[in-house]
Design the sequence.
């Protein structure tokens, strides 16, 4: 297990800035997910850690040793890291056993130790019975498990994964995600996992690193990032939310289009009088159900009319128009709770679920922005 420090890491491709002074510390044994939209610099960060790209400025330190710097970079094969790719990248002409054994043969590991270690690695990913097969005789999920076994058999200090589940269908992705998590809990390898899938990032990470345009936007546990995002970008990238433009009237109230919302969770550096965005997740808009509030929990109580309802299997999604305003809110409720369009409902929004964010230029134009991710 190893710790990693990224210090002011910067990379240009021609004149375009792909990574802009990235600073991050990954603790020994931690699983970090790098999450962000296409082109935000996730893969560049990972490839730099693997040694395939040299930084223009800054450095990467692993266990107090500089491994990447503009004029001083350790080659990939000397880094003791294993990388897993979206495309599996396993040898088509080698059996499962030989694919997993490949790295051990390069390291000249003796015959007995080699077969023991390959058997252990295959058992970890439940492939012991398929050791004799070729990749063309395996499903996508099984091929990705071969690449997992091949990555861990060499006992790397650090495991790197670049969107490893993107080529799998939804149910297999979920199963593989659980396998990766189980493997991580067992081996405790320091792991950096690149994804643009927020569910994957939340489900796997000890800490999520949200990136945008070559910069880190926020680092935190999945709960911190989801429940206390620092910006509108992070709030909407990590999950769906109602974003309402308003003004902070006092340390516990926000005015939106003439309506007052009581709040208790305000992002740093926002002062009274500032323009803000109120972030409310759809599941926090509770309809006709005061008893869903926990004892002692206070809420904003409002009246609304149902504009639209969609049945989505696991839940129903409502568009609600708030009384005495032109504000709309998205709410979700269990499928057995039915409200017809045009019916009137009382809604409760727990104060703790009203996150106040600094206003960004885009949101100031519209009083209601519903993000669908
Ligand atoms: P994706 O999720 O689509 O893989 P990403 O977040 O991993 O995106 P990167 O691949 O790190 O993004 O790319 C960051 C920026 O650097 C992008 O604008 C990309 O076009 C640019 N870039 C990456 N590699 C190169 C390269 N070899 N030459 C030129 N530009 C590059």
Sequence:
């Amino acid at each position: 297990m190893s710790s990693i420090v990224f210090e002011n890491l910067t990379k240009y491709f021609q004149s375009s800035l792909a990574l802009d002074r990235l600073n991050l510390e990954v603790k020994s044994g931690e699983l970090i997910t790098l999450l962000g939209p296409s082109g935000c610099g996730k893969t560049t960060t990972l490839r730099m850690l693997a040694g395939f790209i040299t930084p223009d400025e800054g450095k990467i330190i692993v266990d107090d040793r500089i491994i990447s710097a503009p004029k001083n970079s350790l080659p990939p094969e000397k880094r003791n890291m294993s990388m897993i790719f979206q495309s599996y990248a396993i040898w088509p002409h080698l059996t499962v056993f030989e694919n997993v054994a490949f790295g051990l043969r390069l390291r000249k590991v003796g015959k007995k130790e080699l077969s023991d270690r390959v058997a252990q690695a295959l058992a970890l990913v439940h492939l012991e019975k398929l050791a004799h097969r070729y990749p063309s005789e395996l499903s996508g999920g099984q091929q990705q498990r071969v690449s997992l076994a091949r990555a861990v058999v060499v006992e790397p200090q650090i495991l790197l994964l670049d969107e490893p589940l993107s080529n799998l269908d939804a149910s297999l992705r979920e199963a593989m995600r659980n396998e990766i998590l189980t493997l991580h809990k067992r081996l405790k390898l320091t792991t950096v996992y690149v994804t643009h899938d927020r569910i994957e990032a939340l489900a796997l990470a000890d800490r999520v690193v949200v990136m945008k345009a070559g910069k880190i936007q926020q680092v935190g546990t999945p709960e911190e990032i989801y429940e206390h995002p620092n910006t509108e970008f992070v709030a909407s990238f990590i999950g769906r939310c109602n974003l309402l433009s308003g003004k902070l009237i006092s340390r516990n109230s926000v005015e939106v289009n003439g309506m007052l919302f009581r709040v208790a969770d305000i992002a740093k550096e926002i002062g009274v009088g500032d323009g803000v965005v109120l972030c409310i997740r759809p599941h926090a808009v509770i309809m006709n159900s005061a008893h869903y509030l926990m004892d002692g929990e206070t809420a904003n109580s409002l009246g609304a009319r149902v504009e639209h309802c969609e049945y989505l299997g696991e839940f129903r999604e409502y568009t609600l128009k708030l009384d005495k305003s032109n504000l709309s809110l998205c709410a979700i409720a269990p499928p057995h709770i039915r409200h017809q369009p045009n019916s009137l409902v009382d809604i409760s929004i727990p104060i703790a679920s009203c996150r106040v964010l600094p206003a960004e230029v885009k949101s100031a134009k519209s009083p209601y922005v519903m993000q669908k991710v």
Q: What stands out?
A: Residues 13, 18, 36, 38-44, 196 surround adenosine-5'-triphosphate (CB under 6 Å). The chain has a mean pLDDT of 89. The radius of gyration is 24 Å.
